[in-house]
Structure formats: structure tokens, C-alpha cells
Design goal:
Elements: H1 3-16, H2 21-35, H3 42-49, H4 51-75
Helix pairs in contact: 1-2
Length: 77
């Protein structure tokens, strides 16, 4: 996931309320730290410092939760 994709993903989660306060605060903090870098250094910094951990600890679990909620909603139809 690129940094721009991560920002978009965070904006989607802010609108659908599929994450908790801790995840939201963590993502806001990470976005702030990455944005402090010059624009041409942001993607490299993101990939080196955050991308792997964020995917494993935040994005993938939340995406799994969303899939489970969608499946449950479809089962109830």
C-alpha cells in the first residue's frame, strides 16, 4: 500500500466508522509524521518506517472485520 492509498483508506474508515479510537489516533499520528517529510521523500519514508507494520496491525485486521460484517449482513438477507 502506498502512502496515498493509506491516506485514502483512512478517509474511508473515518466515514464508515469501522475502526476504533486507538486506530484512528494512530493513523492520524502516522500521517502527520509522514507529511512532515519533503514530498519527494514521503513515500520512501512511509515504506521504510510504517507500511509493513501498519498493514499487519491496522489495515488487515480492520479489512477482515469489514468482510465479516458484510458476510453477516448478506447472511441476514
Amino acid at each position: 500500500m502506498t502512502f496515498k492509498q493509506f491516506e485514502a483508506w483512512c478517509n474511508q474508515r473515518a466515514c464508515d466508522a469501522c475502526w476504533g479510537m486507538l486506530e484512528a489516533m494512530t493513523c492520524i499520528d502516522i500521517i502527520g509524521k509522514v507529511r512532515e517529510k519533503r514530498f519527494w521523500k514521503r513515500e520512501k519514508f512511509w515504506q521504510e518506517e510504517y507500511a509493513t507494520d501498519v498493514m499487519e496491525q491496522i489495515v488487515n485486521p480492520i479489512e477482515k472485520k469489514i468482510a465479516e460484517l458484510a458476510k453477516a449482513a448478506n447472511d441476514n438477507i
